[in-house]
Amino acid sequence: MRFQVVLPDESPDTEPSLISDIAVAAEQLGFDTVYLPDHLLPPGEYGPPPRPFGGVYEPLVTLAHIAARTSTVRLATSVLIAPLREPVLLAKQAATLDRLSRGRLTLGVGVGWNEPEFASLGSDFATRGRRTDEMLAQIEELFRTGRGRGGGVFEPRPTPSLRILVGGRSDAALRRAARFGDVWQGVGYRPAEIAAPAARVRELSAPRPVSVAARIDGTDADEVEQWRAAGVDELGVWFGETDGFVDRMTEFAQRPDVRTDLRAAGGA
Asked: Is the predicted pLDDT of residue 265 greater than 90, yes or no?
């Protein structure tokens, strides 16, 4: 199983360099991926749980900074609210970041869940799923053909290593992941609950393989073997607020049920 870190990006008081320092430490420990969340104009304050909003620093810009300080860890969004973005610009940003990082980008997208955030941007909430499917189809075409639908050249083309992650719990999200994704990420599941949607994604995507990923709070670290038994391929962990984040991440990395996989990935 591949282990991943959800970086702390919930407080406006967080020094940006601290986020990249944590990413460097995660790479040194052998974690596979670092994630950043996304909220452009949330209706409430940013903050750690129980507040629902993270993503103070724009994730693609921040990941570009992290790319310059790292060399092996994958850089990912979990998840970018796709229907709040313009598709060609998003494709350009993603392809550029993928090339800058030498093929380390996982572009994680979702449809969004907070209707007031859509209203604050003048974006239609009801059509967000359809628009996300259209965006992913357009981005796929740009990456594959290097041409816009109405003409025009698209460059840089991303590396073959770029991955698309699709998040969400609905059947539409599972179908979206099966159609467009390399990874499906389920959030808010317990280990016993994720087997059924994971099987559904794999059934829909066959024979093309789609990895199954989950995201948890560090307080659930004792459930690693349950996630492994449930067939999860990738497990992302948020280790809480910035104070003590690296210590908690290091303690997790030293667990016997984690350490072997991190060593296989080249960790300390």
From this structure: no
